[in-house]
Amino acid sequence: MNVHYFSPGPARLPEEVRNQIKEELLDTFGMGVSIMEISHRSKQYEQLSQETLALARKTFQVPDTHSLLFSVCGAQQHFSLLTQHLSAPEDEIAYTNTGVWSHLACEEAYASGRKVHLVYDGRPNYSTLGNPKEWKIPKKAKYVHITVNNTVYGTEYKEIPTFADIPVVLDMTSSLGARTDIPWESTALVYASAQKNFGIAGVSVIIMRNDLLEKSRELTKLDRVGKALTYHAVFDAKSALNTPPVFPIFAMNKMLNWIASCGGVSTMEKWANEKAKMVYSEIDAGFYLFNIDKSYRSRHNFVFKLPSAKQDEHFIQEAQKNGILEIKGYKSLGGIRASMYNGVSLESASIFAEFMREYRKKFG
């Protein structure tokens, strides 16, 4: 039976990528050595690393005004580090609270000692993302932090907000590689873990405006950030300050090449919209319960409930019989969550939507 896997992360890889990794795993460079054991100081890995950095820059359409590096840190580490790289202890910064991960980012900001302005708070139900045009952003704010896609509640900004001269910091872990509309001129920093749209767990991407990267050399000293944790030190070392996550970077390389072979991020964006249309057409049929503002529906995370918790569980069990896996809702919410990142095929999305349709007709 074919498996249709909708994990919120680590996410499904395309079959072509899985097979290529399998074929090259044990003798990656034609010298009898696996990527899992190659020296990160070898010419083979150095070539792979530089190629992947260039691929990432091209795939994500990063302009010359910004630098790109690979980090071993995940989003939660970046919640803390980005504040120390972009502001001094006495500075003002602005945050939005639109879900689980943005809430954690806010907590790190408060812990930093900065003056934090919460310009939008979506609690308690996080059903909408508010109206950015109404937010009161302090003129002295060093940046506005925005989580572009909220994986737990299934919300996403259809247009990424900008605020004149105040730059934005974008958590794009679940959307980088699937959107073409990043407002680079207004963006101070983008951070994203690979395991959603462009690889596997173990590596993340940092994209930082060049002038701010240089300025961070002094700012991080104010907070006494260790050299090995600074973005500029990792960038200077070409993302190999210490032993980098060699295998995840190898997997990212394969995934980025696959994205390019499909037509790039514009194709990923097109497919994401097509997958979303399939699923939301079933949600809009009336049986499934969905409390998110339609203006902010996520193109990647489809979150809904059935009339009872018992039926939620029945839906999950019936889905498993059809090879549909990993659709249980987030632990604190319950219900159903099907996540469809770049590696989930249009076929799998169609099969899930068809299952929803048949289940609604049979049990609704």
Automatic annotation (TrEMBL):
The modification N6-(pyridoxal phosphate)lysine is found at residue 196. One of its GO terms (cellular component) is cytoplasm. It comes from the Bacteria. It is an enzyme of class 2 (transferase). L-glutamate binds at residue 41. One of its GO terms (biological process) is pyridoxine biosynthetic process. One of its GO terms (molecular function) is pyridoxal phosphate binding. It catalyses: 4-(phosphooxy)-L-threonine + 2-oxoglutarate = (R)-3-hydroxy-2-oxo-4-phosphooxybutanoate + L-glutamate; O-phospho-L-serine + 2-oxoglutarate = 3-phosphooxypyruvate + L-glutamate. Catalyzes the reversible conversion of 3-phosphohydroxypyruvate to phosphoserine and of 3-hydroxy-2-oxo-4-phosphonooxybutanoate to phosphohydroxythreonine. This is Phosphoserine aminotransferase. It comes from Fluviispira sanaruensis.
